[in-house]
Amino acid sequence: MRILIVGSGGREHALAWKIAQSPLVRDLWCAPGNPGMARVAKLLPVRADDVEALAAEARRLSVDLVVVGPEAPLVLGLADRLAKDGIAVFGPSAAAAEIEGSKAFAKDVMLAAGIPTAAHGTFRELDPAIAFARARFGRVVVKADGLAAGKGVVVAGSLDEAERAIRDMLVGHVHGAAGATVVIEERLEGREASVIALTDGERVRLLPSAQDHKRVGDADTGPNTGGMGAFSPAPQVTPEVAREVEERVLLPAIRELARRGRPFRGALYAGLMLTPEGLRVLEFNARLGDPETQPILMRLRGDLVPALLAAARGDLSRVSVDVDPRPAVGIVLAAEGYPARPVMGDVLAGLDGPFEEGVQVFHAGTGLAPDGGVVSTGGRVLTACALGDDLAAARTRAYAALARIRLRGGHYRRDIGVH
User: Fold this and answer.
1) Of 30, 46, 22, 26, nearest to 363 (Cα)?
2) Contact 210, 295 (CB under 8 A)
3) Architecture of domain 328-407
4) Which residues contact 56 (CB under 8 A, 6 or more apart)?
5) Phi–psi pair at 23, nearest 5 degrees
6) Tens of pLDDT along 229-274?
7) Fold classified for 191-313
8) For the whole model, what pTM was predicted?
9) Cα–Cα distance measured from residue 284 to residue 281, given in angstroms and rounded to the nearest whole number
């Protein structure tokens, strides 16, 4: 097969690493990719959000399957464009991807499908939005409706913080059009977890659960980020909880989207809060998570390509997921100044290890310098991942790998995997 992966982050490098192991694959390309992905695939200088250029490259290369990593090209209709050319694509149509592209739409789907979620309201005007927050004494989460590169969510700790977030989005337009509508929901207490499923529009196949660490500092302090690390499995997602997520969350969402004429094929991500009152859905994403994908794929045994192709073609009936029982931990190395103002262009050293078996370093925000060295080009620079006989062993091995890598001003959390 000839496969094209769209994206350039740690999630896409993990996909490239896993897909390259398949005996079914003859040629593998990544657009635009990164230096880590260049070790297992050929890179194409095409932006991940350039739908027409990606479709043209897929036609030129006679690609059999396109695997879309990030959400932006899905919301822009890349899957629809490829389908017109008869190219199989792992990723939903723009209509189905609206479940991530609009938080208001996602809440509407949840209500229609009877999916448990937080009490919430959707607002375009300032005064009603502030009144909703005041009625809950500021203990709310304020979310920009549209895509905001992982920065459109404020978990308010006070009424002042809630009002400031609402004003910033609706009046200050800090997220542009993405924040022209806001969803405000009650702040839930409990344990967070991520459950991602492959789906063909009718069936689902659950991947191993994971838990993400969103805040930049140890002990969940500081601002939210795109994710500072993750581990799998999430201990709170027992087999019983996983069944509940499948039956009460994922399948109802898939069926509701299909009922609306928006069949979803790809990876559906459910961000969950396990509260004392039961399971609640925080969000849906229309793709694999980042950084959760990195430790999840470390745990998947066997060939991933048949499952991706089956989902794209609409028939997962013969697909099962084989999981390594050992846990995996992934730790993000971030650039100086991340998440507010990441410093870029610094040289990375120690990327070649040597690393033990069961340890991988996935590039994210990296690029090549004129001298051929690797430099930082983004806020989240890479993810060091490791399997271990238990969670403590996996953590130790991942941190040992990270200790070999040097980046001026680079920082990472010291408590990833401590739950």
Assistant:
1) 30
2) yes
3) Alpha-Beta Complex (3.90)
4) none
5) -70, -10
6) 999 999 999 999 999 999 999 999 999 999 999 999 999 999 999 9
7) D-amino Acid Aminotransferase; Chain A, domain 1 (3.30.470)
8) 0.95
9) 8
Question: 334 in helix, strand or coil?
Answer: strand
Which helix (H) or strand (E) segment holds residue 362: the answer is: strand 359-363
- Measured in whole angstroms, the distance separating CA 320 from the mean position of its chain's CA atoms is 22
Please say whether the beta carbons of 71 and 78 come within 8 A: no
Taking CA atoms, 373 is separated from 348, 355, 362, 401, in Å, by 8, 19, 16, 19
Class level of CATH domain 125-180: alpha beta
Q: Give the model confidence (pLDDT) of 202-240 as tens digits.
A: 999 999 999 999 999 999 999 888 899 999 999 999 999
Q: Which residues, 6+ apart, have CB-to-CB distance to 141 below 8 Å? A: 118, 153, 154, 155, 156, 184, 185, 186, 187
Q: How far apart are the first and last CA of the chain?
A: 41
Give CA angle at 202 (110, 253), nearest 5°.
5
pLDDT in tens, 48-62: 999 999 999 999 999
